[in-house]
User: What shape does this take?
Amino acid sequence: MSSGKLIVLTGPSGVGKGTLVRSLLARHNNLYLSISATTRSPRLGEIEGQDYYFVSRPQFEDMIAQSAFLEWANYAGNYYGTPRDKVEEKIKQGIIVLLEIEIVGARAIKQTFPDALRIFILPPSLEELEHRLRGRGTDSEEAMTRRLERAKEELTASKEFDHTIINDDLETALKKLEQYIIYHS
Ligand code: ADP
Ligand code: 5GP
Assistant: This one.
């Protein structure tokens, strides 16, 4: 059976991971984006089963106990995790699977999937990161402060990853990402 690949995109909140992934999916129909489970409340417009599986804390903890996650992490006060089944099924079918996850989970993937390609997305500057988080307008002031604090720690870890891409001009970043994925698959 042919075997697909796992591509992990990580980087601080607000850097543009979601934007890059959406553009990639729109251009390449051979990619599958894993849908995570989270205990975070849905944002306005987010759809169950499309953006996330929104679950309660006890449900998430049950899933941890059942080893249902490929990786999971606690991020800014909520749990986030990658359900294992679907990812393994798609990879067996020869499909390229994308994970868009924070850094603790991206580190953990190195143990479970040593062949995964792990890419760190960097902002042009911390000021621009804050500008993007504010511009997105989805987080409270408190959540934004937590995310920015966390971002400062995360940025120091970029060298642990296979590639780094600065998301300054979106099209340029997208081209680099496409090149890395094509080269890896
Ligand atoms: P993440 O998924 O990493 O949290 P998003 O994809 O939600 O980040 O992007 C955060 C904000 O930054 C969004 O408002 C998005 O439109 C904007 N953004 C993303 N990439 C760029 C870019 N290259 N230049 C300017 N703004 C961008
Ligand atoms: P948000 O609340 O903005 O949707 O996501 C917060 C952070 O959690 C982002 O950095 C996002 O990439 C990350 N994230 C989303 N799903 C997962 C997951 O399944 N596992 C891990 N470890 N992080 C995730």
